Amino acid sequence: MTTFIGPNGAGKSSVLRALEWFFNGDTTALTDHDVYSGADPAARQITVEVTFTELTERDRTQLGERYAPVGFSSFRAKRTWEAGVDRMTVATQTYAPFEEVRRGTTVAEKKSTYSELVASYPMLNLPKWTKVDEAEQAMKAWEKEHPDQLEEVMVSTAQIFGFNGQNKLSGIFDYVLVAADMRAVEESVEGKKTIIGRILDRTVSRDVARAEFEALAAEVSQRQAEITRRLLGGQLEELGQALTAEVAVFTSGRGVRLNVTSPDVRPIPASVNVLITDALVETSVDRQGHGFQRALLISSLKLLATRGTDTSDSSVILLAVEEPELFQHPTQARVFARVLRELSEAPDRGMQIAYATHSPYFVDPRYFDQVRRVTRSRHDVNGHAEVEVFQASLEAVCARLDGFVPDNSIRSRWDQVCTRTLAEALFAEAVVLVEGDCDKGILDGMASRGGQISFETHGITVAQAAGKQNLLTPHAILAELRIPTLTVFDSDKGSGDRKRASGKDPLAARREDENNASMNRLLLRYFSVPESDYPAGKISPTLYAWDGDLERVLARDWPGWEDTHKQLIDEGRGVNGKDPATYGLAAKECPEGPTGVLLDVVAAAGNLVAR
Which has the closest alpha carbon to 360: 385, 334, 382, 341? Predict the structure, then answer.
């Protein structure tokens, strides 16, 4: 499973369409307009390179020893377009001087180069030239016996994805793209290039029916000729004689005969159309909703790929979908996301899934390493835009958390509370990472006030990690994806004193103080800032600590908030206690404005997107 996320215009779909061109694109599909605007004028080319890993024995047999020798588990191919010339090159282990022979375009050229090679490299002990095939076999045998002298070379070939119909990977690896603008109505009509037409060609044998249609046509032709002779023959003969007699008045020696030409009866193949049944109602595809049409498209393409792929266990289909959430009801989108993941995880289906999405429904934070964040930016105002792709790999996240969070909690893909709200955060331009929902409610409420920076407008999301101890994992993931993040946490200063004042066990109060100080130092150490037991306020441009906890800061820097909070509860518009919605509504409606560190945090969040 691979999930591409990023803002509109970043280039997510370009990745999927580049792969579509690599596997299925026509040699005339590209023009100079498709070349990157910032390309070197002297080298305006398009290159798409794909690496295939985990090759099976059957894959190697299909590709051949030249491209996938024994012992190699990967295979790399590159398709390049330049000035209208389209060519495929494949990485192969070869002895470089032999490639000069193989690049020859005629037998005479190959013979000349081979003979020069034999003369120049007598230590190779190659036989003299006899035939092209024998020379190639001699070079292959030498390469097989001297693997230590081989090097990787990109060699030109059209036989791997063959533009001339020779496609060595077809049936082993197939790529199917469901474009956002693909229309189910058009694809459900039988035709050579439509989905339903291609499915019928691959799954329905019409040979027997065609033969019977032709026999029926011949029988109809014979029957038609017999009827013509029986019912029209005499009448036409008599009419011809009458015409001959009339012509004889004006000329002699000529006659008139009326002949019937029966048209050939050609069998017209039966056409197939798609109808949708719903209980007792049967309708055409165009009368269905867009959501169902989209589901039908993807299901049909999956079936087409499955039926067109080799039935062996080693065959693989990569189903790529542009915006799978398109036209989907939220509940249906969740089901769709689950089905796609199940398809990708089922070992017996041989399915890989890739999609470009704007929907958190299609991002599972447990599999953050499957996300590719695509960004498009200009480092120079007058320069060309550059596209970058970022990934939070398991290795990178574990390395960042080494000494802070156990590896097994990351690698085992537990459903962790700290990443529950991460799906939406992955789509943000910047993230404010806080401990809990009440922090989120306050900051969102403040940002919605007039005169404050609007988080929504600037693409800033507040994400909660369900506790201070859980802040590090989501931060590491966001950092690897290069999403600017501001982290805010409670210092919990004075929590032990409150326990003592309420008559709690002094030992438990001291232990709480020690734990809080230890956790604070751990956090500061992770962020590579000077350690202290109870930090407060701004620690760095991207790290803040509430002095004590959020409620103490609100009481000090925004006393009017508490009055509004109580008023909302009294009016029945809020809930008593730590309720995020009530906290947020009070922050939004409080007549007085916030001050102090509260404003500093909102301003720091705005600075994340101002860089």
Answer: 334
pLDDT at position 163 is 44
Give the pair of three-digit tokens for residue 381: 């105002």
Euclidean distance between CA atoms 471 and 520, whole angstroms: 11
Neighbour count for residue 126 (Cβ, 10 Å): 18
Within a 10 A sphere around the Cβ of 516, how many other Cβ atoms?
Answer: 20
Q: Tokens 């004193």 belong to which residue?
A: 497
Q: How far apart (Å, rounded) are the C-alpha atoms in residues 237 and 120?
A: 89
| Antiparallel, parallel or unpaired: β 173-178 and 151-156 | unpaired
Find, among 264, 286, 289, the residue nearest to 214 by Cα. Answer: 264
Q: The whole model's pTM is what?
A: 0.79
Q: Which residues lie closer than 8 Å to 168 by C-beta, 6 or more apart?
A: 62, 63, 64, 159, 160, 161, 162
DSSP string, 568-601: HHHTTSS-SSS-HHHHHHHHHH-SSPP-HHHHHH
Task: Provide the greatest CA pair distance for the chain.
Answer: 141
pLDDT tens figures, 256-306: 889 888 777 787 777 777 888 887 788 888 888 888 888 887 777 677 666
Instruction: Kindly state the tokens that stand for 182.
Output: 């693909």
Beta-carbon-side half-sphere exposure of residue 422 (alpha carbons within 13 Å): 29
What the block records as the tokens of 92 is 């192969």
